[in-house]
Amino acid sequence: MADLKLFGSWASSYTHRVQLALKLKGLDFEYIEEDLANKSPSLLLHNPIYKKVPVLLHRARPVAESVIILHYLDETWPDVRPLLPAAPYDRALARFWCHFADDKLGPAVGAVFASPSEGQGAAVEQEVMKVKLVDPEAFPFFHSWLRDFEEHEEVKEIMPAIDRLLEYAGGVRQMMLSLSNQQQ
Length: 184
Ligand SMILES: N[C@@H](CCC(=O)N[C@@H](CS)C(=O)NCC(=O)O)C(=O)O
What we know:
This protein has 184 residues and is of the alpha+beta class. It folds into two domains: 73 residues, Glutaredoxin; 96 residues, Glutathione S-transferase Yfyf (Class Pi), Chain A, domain 2 (Up-down Bundle). Helices cover 59% and strands 9% of the residues. The chain is built from eight helices and four strands. Strands 2-1-3-4 form a four-stranded mixed beta sheet, with helices on one face. α1 links the parallel β1 and β2. α1 runs parallel beside α3 and α4 packs antiparallel against α5. The N and C termini lie far apart (49 Å). The mean pLDDT is 88. The structure holds glutathione. The site of glutathione (GSH) has 11 residues, from α3. It catalyses: RX + glutathione = an S-substituted glutathione + a halide anion + H(+).
């Protein structure tokens, strides 16, 4: 039995985080792709509260929630490619931006995504999916950090092709719009 198993979804950025951490730390793991429209009994068993991916199993013990999984990996394998900086203040900053991404960025992108306006739909495709969300002039440091991040071999290996993501995102958007039309 593999020591580490990861239940994930190929288009999930929460899953990508954990895949990246595992890869950076050089840990072998078995990857189990979940169909989120038809979740497996194993996923529901291991994450009965949220029923979401990612879930990591370490020696058959489940850990859910991507950020909690990242902390778990870092605390279990602290010496190989630490995910957080050493200094407490720098760690606080990294945790702040991680929280910001989950608390503000994700929901903001989701809200634009679910908007019925055609103009906004086009904006989502252009700005979010073609990764122009971060304006280099307004946010030069964040923009250059993102470009550096994308250049890492480990990141390239994990991130799905943008066209595939775009097609998937378009399908999800259509589904959300038809659900919201049915409710009106
Ligand atoms: N806060 C969670 C979010 C995970 C999440 O939203 N996962 C999505 C895929 S991106 C999911 O499993 N969705 C299935 C559902 O909501 O039923 C984390 O950081 O792990």
